[in-house]
Amino acid sequence: MIFTRIITMTSAAIACAPIAYAHEFWIDPPKFQVENDAPFVADLRNGELFQGTAQSFFESRNTRFEAALGGQISQITGRMGDRPAIQLSAPGQDGLMVIVHEAAPSTVSYAEWEKFMSFVAHKDFQGVEALQTQRGWARENFKELYTRHSKSLVAIGSGEGADRAFGLATEFVALDNPYAEDFDGTLDVALLYDGAPRGDAQIEVYARDKDDTVVVTKTRTDAMGLAAIPVDAGMEYLLDAVVLRPLAGATTVEAGPIWETLWASLTFAVPSR
């Protein structure tokens, strides 16, 4: 069971106040466009409002870490403690490189029901309180299991190419290439969950300019799991969407986590023309 809002909303700007209960995770290159003879680096970041702390490389924290370019997929490896976590040698060919990352499960504890419900409201989930009551789960001192499922679109040289589905538990798939010469300023995306379209799901769109000013908007996927994201030249973007579901096999709060969240993110830039 996934919890989503029943009524579809149009895109709307939201205030950029920090939200302590909703930390995003994303792939953050200092440059989204690099030449094919130059090395490529990027951070894994955890934070709020497209600003956060760079995470070091630890193999045990990753369940999947790849770079896809020109039909080839390479495993991303590193030394324990490397930062930036992504350090790749020069690709040697042009194309759209897609960085793919899935993080090992982690847990977060909620001492107070109100904090959890603030998160639920922010991410626009419905039916959560009713299910918590139905299953007899306590409303304090319970845990949530969460995983991160991240992608980033990087232009190597010309940046020609296309994104695709990589079989992540949940993921964005860009249906346009924002680096293409004929890109029209609207990025069409598909949102997938277990390989199927995720309809009527909230997407948060973070737009960051060269001065690190961030504007946040929200939109929703349609019944087919599709959304059209208006974007501006010279900006960097983070898309974020979260699945909340009861953890399979959960019994009591004393026995372990009772909820599970799966966080999808996609980062990219739109070149100044």
Q: Give the overall shape, derived from the CA principal axes.
A: globular
Helix content: under 10%
Total separate domains = 1
Structural class: mainly beta
Q: Indicate the multimeric state.
A: single chain
From the alpha-carbon coordinates, what is the Rg to the nearest angstrom? 19 Å
Largest sheet: 11 strands, mixed
Strand fraction equals over 45%
Q: Flag low-confidence runs.
A: 1-21
Q: What separation lies between the terminal Cα atoms?
A: 44 Å
Count helical runs. 2
Chain-averaged pLDDT: 92
Tell me the series of helices and strands, N- to C-terminal: EEEEEEEEEEHHEEEEEEEEE
Tell me how many strands there are: 19
Produce a short descriptive summary:
By secondary structure, this protein is mainly beta.
Please, could you describe this protein's structure?
- The protein is mainly beta and 273 residues long.
- The protein has one domain.
- Helices cover 7% and strands 46% of the residues.
- The chain has helices at residues 113-123, 128-134; strands at 12-14, 24-28, 33-34, 40-48, 51-55, 62-69, 72-75, 86-88, 95-103, 106-110, 142-156, 170-174, 186-193, 196-197, 202-208, 214-220, 226-230, 235-246, 259-270.
- β13 (186-193) and β14 form a beta hairpin.
- Mean pLDDT is 92; it is low at 1-21.
